[in-house]
Amino acid sequence: MSMGARTRINVCFHGIGTPARVLETGEAPYWIDHRTYLDVLDAVAEDPRVRISFDDGNSSDIELGLPGLLERGLTATFFVLAGRLDRPGSLGTSDVQALRQAGMTIGTHGMDHRPWRGLDAGHRRRELEEARQVLARIAGTPVTEAALPLGRYDRELLGHLRALGYTAVHTSDRRWAREGSWLQPRFSVRDGDTAETVRTTMLGRQSPARLAERVLVGTVKRLR
Ligand SMILES: [Zn+2]
Question: How far is the CA of 204 from the centre of ligand 1 (A)?
Answer without folding.
Answer: 25
